[in-house]
Amino acid sequence: MANAPERFDAVFLPDGVSKISYEHPMNDPSTAVFRIEREDHTIGNLLRMQLLRDKNVIFAGYRQPHPLQHHIELRVKVKQPSSLSEESPVTALIEAITDLDQELNLLQDRFQFAVGRAQAAQSETG
Questions:
Q1: Interatomic CA distance for residues 90 and 96, integer angstroms
Q2: Which PROSITE patterns match (predicted)?
Q3: What pTM value is reported for the model?
Q4: Residue 62: its H or E element
Q5: Which domain range does residue 49 map to?
Q6: Which residues touch 55 (CB under 8 Å, ≥6 apart)?
Q7: pLDDT of res. 9
Q8: Contact 24, 38 (CB under 8 A)
């Protein structure tokens, strides 16, 4: 196809473009819209579900504006902070990413343990 976009455009981050950026719409410190480059529904849905587990998060949703645009927009609204020490959308996202990282590491460890047990059982019978 002559006018099809290059396949690597969906994966490689161009020079000078940051992976993630955010803004506070209408100067509301309890809401942020994060633009995450070169990601799709896989990361968007994981982050949304993890954010919704947080008791301080009121709303978390994402969208991919267009299939040919290789970014997602993640909107997060937290309870109105009464002080600067309370959770902001940025800290909520950082905590969600940290929690997901820990869950995925646990999944990887359990998977490797199960594979090791299966290999040991196979070598005993074989």
A1: 10
A2: RNA_POL_L_13KD (PS01154)
A3: 0.85
A4: strand 57-63
A5: 7-80+87-125
A6: none
A7: 82
A8: no
